[in-house]
Amino acid sequence: MSQALKHSLSTEHRAKVQARGVNVYYGDKKALSGIGLDIPEHQVSALIGPSGCGKSTFLRCLNRMNDIIEGCRVEGAITIDGADIYAKDQDVVQLRARVGMVFQKPNPFPKSIYENVAYGPRIHGLAPGRKELDDLVRDSLERAGLMGEVHDRLDHPGTSLSGGQQQRLCIARAIAVKPELILMDEPCSALDPIATAKIEELIDELRTRFTIVIVTHSMQQAARVSQRTAFFHMGELVETGSTEQIFTNPKDDRTQAYITGRIG
Amino acid sequence: MAADHIVKTFDEDLTQMINMIAEMGGLAESQLAEAVMALVRRDEGLAARVIDHDERQDELEEDIEAQVIRLLALRQPMALDLRTVVAALKIAAELERIGDYAKNVAKRSLTLMQTQPVGNAANTIMRMGSIAGDMIHNVIDAYLNKDIVKADEVRARDQDVDQLHTGLFRELLTYMMEDPRNITACTHLLFVAKNIERIGDHATNIAESVHYLVAGERNERERSKQDLSSSTVINVWDKS
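Structure tokens for the assembled complex are given below, as produced in the milestone run.
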């Protein structure tokens, strides 16, 4: 490989998130076992694996969404910028402002488009006045690639939008509170290919400002949008590497079997 | 060999593609053997048959290319599958080129039949052809069995062909200096030798594709180059 190509593929990015020895239990059942993973800053990391492999469970550890699940217990260490997010003095509300989340099914609030985006900044006190709030809402809609389609109907209900537009509204809502990390759990599984392509294009733009972790069932999507890929299987992290390496030359037979669609 | 795909028709598509490579490889091997045989035995009919059969080689290459494009579009192969499909495309192109060289050997053998035999050249050509033929045979075996050791052996074998080529080059130059009436035959023999030397190079390229297909990484080591014909000088003034 030429030096120039090697350079363009280099992934020297600081680890934004570090997970070490993470175990997760739902009651007696161990859902994740000894996960050690670095999430590089300003990169898209894709978590892939069959249903029930623990990829969504791991994603939910990163903003402590598992806290609200009865009987769920998380062991090990997860740090963001070196600070333990499971520390006793960690404010969970503050954490979730730093770590935004976009879900499988678009879930706008039953409010106007404007209010959907304004809600977060208002409760976190990010905009001192009406003018600042207006700017922030417009800026977020712009960055989510939605402004052009909704600029003349910001007062319409968020739920009046199409599925793909609703998902971009949810992304605008997530980025309005200026998070550092955005978690996406199957963000395109309810969308058609055109709406999916728009979200994927958006994800690629967003990574210059945010660090993104995406869980996806679509391997083609993982290949298209991410720079790093982690393969989970039966609660274990089997293999992690550059997306190119995982999809052209995986080292583990289980990864190979999964991504080539073989009976593992 | 990896386990079967969940989607069975994917396996059928891959198998069909691999079978076409096997057929193409077998044809390339027999085309070369027959072209060399036509030259050695001065067999016009055999030479004509080789020239005729090259068309099948071209057809197979087109079919493989179509199948590869189909597989990429419809199956989106990944990892080992992706490498298998891309290797097939490259190998088919190499085999097609080998076929062209064999055809050219057959054509020149027809011309050579109209000239006097020159020294021992035909024997050396036969040895070169036999090694290059083995290389084709073994590299296709290596592809079908995903046998990286065998592929690397083929790559190493190329220097034998190169050495014979360099030796024959010097020999033919000497014949030409001895008697200008040898020039026509020797010039054609030089091209024949060069064609077979190139066939060895293409078999080596296939070996490198097989290495990548199996290991997921390119061959690291630089290969020693034994074909010195391009820098060979025989100084006529030293002879006296």
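Chain A touches chain B through 16 residues (CB under 8 Å). The mean pLDDT of chain A is 92. Further analysis is deferred to the final report.
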